[in-house]
Amino acid sequence: MNSVTWLLVGAGDIARKRVAAALAETPCSSIAAVCEPDPTRLAELAGRFGIRERYRDLATALRETSATSVYLATPVAMHVTQAIDALLAGKHVLVEKPLGRTEAECLPLLDLARTSGLKAACAYFRRYWPRYEQTRQILASGELGSPTLIRMHYASWYDPQPQAWRVRRKESGGGTLSDMGSHMFDVLIGLLGVPASVFAKSGTRTHAYDAEDSAAVLGEMPDGTPLVASFQWNSRSWVHEFEVVGTEGRLRWSPFDQGPLLKTIGRDTVAIEAADPSNAHQPLIAAFVKAVIADEDLPVPLSESAKTSRVIDALYRSAQNGKEVRL
User: Fold this and answer.
1) Is the confidence at residue 257, as pLDDT, over 80?
2) Each residue of 56-92: pLDDT tens digit?
3) Phi, psi at residue 93, to the nearest 5°?
4) Domains identified in the chain and CATH numbers
5) What's the pTM value of the predicted model, to 2 decimals?
C-alpha cells in the first residue's frame, strides 16, 4: 500500500475545523468519502474538499466505500460500536477522543483491534507534538529532581447555541472532564503514568446544560506525588496549563496553545521554543498513515487511550459518590 484513503464519518465542528484538512493535506493521504446524516453539512464538507463518495449512514458507507481507513468524528457514545464496525469491515480506524465513556466499554474494541491485523488508534493528538516530546526528554533527564507536585488547569467559555451533543451527557459521557480533561489526563498518563487515586467534585455552576461545566480534582501518582487539577467551561480567561514541580525546579507549558516551555531550575527560568504544527491533528495523521503504509506499530497503542477512559470514569464515580477512587 502506497497511500491511505479515508472515509470521514461526521461533519461536525472538529471535522470542519481541522480533521478534514489534515486528512486531505498530509502526504500519501486523501479523503475518498464522507458520511454525515445532516444533508447540509454533508454537501458543504464534500463540496469543499471535492469528495465524490457521499453517504448518510455508516452501514452503507462501510459496505460501499473505496476507502481503506475510517476517521470517526462522532459523539462519544458511538465511538466503540462504530470502530468495531469499521474493523469488521476490514478498515483501519482512527477514533476521536475520548475512546469510550469507560474502560470497560473500550475492552471489546481493544480485543478486536489486537487480533484484526488492522491499525486502530485514538486521536489524542497532543502526544505527537514537539512540545510533548521535549517535555518527556526534560522529565527523563532528571534535572527537575524528584517530582513534588503535578498541576493541570484548563479554562474556557463553552456555551453552544443551540446546545451541541458535547453538553448532553448521554451522548458525550460528560462535560469538561470528559471533553478537555481527557486530553490533559492523556498527556499526564503518557509522561508520568496513571494516577493511583483520584477525588473529584464537579457541577454545572454557570450554564444551563446537562453536563458539568466545572470540575476540581485531587489525586496521587503511584510514587506519592500529589496531583491538583481543574477544568472549566465557565471562564472566559482561556487558560491551559500543565506543570511539573520537582525538588530542583519546575516545568510549565500549555498543551493547547502555542508558546515556549518554561523551565525553571532554582530561580533561573529559560524559555524553550517549540515548533507547533499549523494543524493540530496533522502530526497524528502523518504517524497513522506511516504506520499503515509501512505496516508498523503505532507510536501510541490503543490501550493507552483506554487508560484515559479508566481515569475519567473514576473521576465521575468519585464526583457522584463523594469518595476517593483507587485506580
Assistant:
1) no
2) 999 999 999 999 999 999 999 999 999 999 999 999 9
3) -140, 135
4) 4-124+280-298 (3.40.50.720), 127-277+309-326 (3.30.360.10)
5) 0.96
